[in-house]
Amino acid sequence: FFRAASALFRMTEIKTLRHQLRLLENEQYHLVELRHQRQRQAEIEKETLRLKQEHEAHVEQHQKEVDQMALQHRLAREAREREIAQEADALDRHQAAVAEKAAQIEYAKRRQAQKRIEENRAHAEWLAEENKRREQMAQFAANTHQLHYDMALRAQSDHYWHLKGKLIAMELEERENQPSEPQSTC
Q1: Pairwise CA distance, residues 121 & 113, whole Å
Q2: Is residue 135 part of a domain?
Q3: Is residue 158 part of a domain?
Q4: pLDDT tens digits for the chain (186 residues)?
Q5: 179 in a domain, yes or no?
Q6: pTM listed for this prediction
Q7: Is residue 137 part of a domain?
Q8: How many domains does the chain have?
Q9: Where in the sequence is the domain holding 45, given as residue range(s)?
């Protein structure tokens, strides 16, 4: 019994020790993992700080460049504004000259247009008169043609009746010149 109890106790003690060892191994693994995580975190923070400093230095350099470019742009813009003002003055003078010339051209165009309107009106009146004269001539020609047709028809009719009369006269004369045949009495 003691031996069995002793063996059972021993087995329990071995299991307990194994369990404790596993727990310790796990704890040690977690501690090592935690230490690695902290080292990685420290490296990340160090790298982040370095990147932040580089970024700030880059931003500062960029800001200096931007300020320098802005100054150059402002100076160039002011110079360009002066040029534009001079060009605007020259353009105003040119536009005034162009406007005056345009007014002269417009006046000449209006006079020319008025002259063309008057010429067109006179031509239209002449065309109306010419058309009226042509219509009268066409009507006269049509009337003359109808008159000639009527006269030709009348002459043809006269000639027909003349020939018809002549034929009848000749037939009568021939009948009269023929010996008369004795009439038979039945």
Answers
A1: 12
A2: no
A3: no
A4: 677 888 888 888 889 999 999 999 999 999 999 999 999 999 999 999 999 999 999 999 999 999 999 999 999 999 999 999 999 999 999 999 999 999 999 999 999 999 999 999 999 999 999 999 999 998 888 888 888 888 988 999 999 999 999 999 999 988 888 766 555 554
A5: no
A6: 0.32
A7: no
A8: 1
A9: 8-128
